[in-house]
UDP-glucose 6-dehydrogenase (Turnera subulata), 472 residues
Amino acid sequence: MVKICCIGAGYVGGPTMAVIALKCPSIEVAVVDISVSRITAWNSDQLPIYEPGLDEVVKQCRGKNLFFSTEVEKHVSEADIIFVSVNTPTKTRGLGAGKAADLTYWESAARMIADVSKSNKIVVEKSTVPVKTAEAIEKILTHNSKGIKYQILSNPEFLAEGTAIQDLFNPDRVLIGGRETPDGLKAIQALKDVYAQWVPEDRIITTNLWSAELSKLAANAFLAQRISSVNAMSALCEATGADVSQVSHAVGKDTRIGPKFLNASVGFGGSCFQKDILNLVYICECNGLTEVANYWRQVIKINDYQKSRFVNRVVSSMFNTVSGKKVAILGFAFKKDTGDTRETPAIDVCKGLLGDKACLSIYDPQVTEDQIQRDLSLNKFDWDHPVHLQPMSPSTVKQQVGVVWDAYEATKGAHGLCILTEWDEFKTLDYQKIFDNMQKPAFVFDGRNIVNAEKLREIGFIVYSIGKPLDP
Ligand code: NAD
C-alpha cells in the first residue's frame, strides 16, 4: 500500500488529502500538523475550516485510509510520498521583509524529513513557494541524506477557498514539475498515478520544476490582476457615468477575454493573492527586473486604492463623518462560503471606519467574534499602504466593535450598512424591515454589487454600488 503523508493540515493540506483519500482507497493518507488544536478539530465533528462538502468527504474516509495526527515524525518516516503544505507567509523582518516569502516553516519541515527518513522519499511542494525553492530543498535534504535518495516535485495547488472540494474533484489542471532525470521522471509518474485515479490524463500537465513553481505565482498574479483591472475601471465608471457591470459584460463577451473574474468589488483578499504578488515582485527585483516588478506591484496598489476609495465614499456620503455613528458591516470573510479572514478587505475597511470613530456592528455567518477582534487589533506589517491605518488597540476595538448573530441585529439603529462579503443570504434579506429599523437617511454601500440597488432606492435607501452611477 502506497503511503502518503502531508505536513500541514490547513486550508490546502486538509481538503486536498481528504480528496486523495476518497478517490484513492488503496492509498493510506496521514495529514500531520504541529498544531494540536487543528488536529483535534480535524478528528472531531467540528472541522477547523468551513468548506462546502468537506464534512462529507472527511466522514467517508477518516479512520479508514485518512488519518489526522500530531505524530509528525512517525508518519513522515513511514511515507513514500511526502506533501509539504505548510504556510509560506510574507516575511515581516530581515532581508526581503514585506515582500519575500518566509520559508522558515518549509525549511524546518525539510530538515525534519532529512532527520527522520530511513527510506527513499518523494517530497512534493504543495505550498506556494518562490521559483527555485526546490533547489534549496534539495540542498538541505541531500546534505543531510545519510544515503537516502530524495526526488523533489512541485505540485502547486490551484483550489479556491469556498469551492475547494468541487475544484479538487474536477480540477482545470493538475500541474507536476520535476527533474528530467530517470529518477525524476519516475517520481513524476508516481504522483501522476495518484491523480490519474480521478483526473483525466489530458488535465495532468508535467513541466520542469521551475515552470511549475513559477506557474502558481503567475496564475495568482493574473487572477489578482484581473480584479484590479476591473476595479480600476470601476473608479472610471463612477467618474463618467458608465456602469461597470455593463462594461464587464461587454468586455467579457470577447472570447479572448472571457466573462469570469470580472466582478468589481471592494477589493481582493485571502491569504494568497497579495502574498504571492509580493513574492513575484521580490523575485523580479532580485533578478534586476525593476519594470516588471513595478508592473505587478501596481496590482496591489490598485487593490489598496479600491479599499480606501470605498472607505472615503462611506465617510463622504455620510456627511463627511462617521464619528459616533453606527455602521453595520455585513460580511467579514474574504469571500463567501469560507470563514477565512486572512487579508480580507473587511479588515482595512473596518479599520478605516474605526479611524474615523465609527461604531461598527459586524455580522458574518461563518466568522467568530474572536477572529474579528483579533484581526482588527492586529498591527500588521504595512507595506507602502495608502489606506493609512492607525494601529487599533484591542481596547478601542472592544469599545467600538460589536459582533452580532444576524444581519437584522447588525443593522438595527444603524446610519449606514456596508456589504463586504457576497454571502448569498445578503441578497434575500428583508430590506424593508432593515430600512424601517435604521436611522434616516439610511445608506447602503454595496461592496460586492449583490443587491438590487433600484429596489433599495424605491424603499428609500441611498445606495452606493461599486462602479455604478451614483444618481442614476
Ligand atoms: P494554513 O496556515 O491554513 O496551514 C498550514 C499548516 O501548516 C498550519 O496548520 C501549521 O500549523 C502547519 N505547519 C507549519 N509548519 C509545520 C511543521 N513544521 N510541521 C507540521 N505542520 C506545520 O495554510 P494554507 O492556507 O493551507 O496554505 C498552505 C500553503 O498553500 C501556502 O503556501 C499557501 O500559499 C498555499 N495555497 C493556499 C491556498 C488557499 O486557498 N488557502 C490555495 C493554494 C495554495
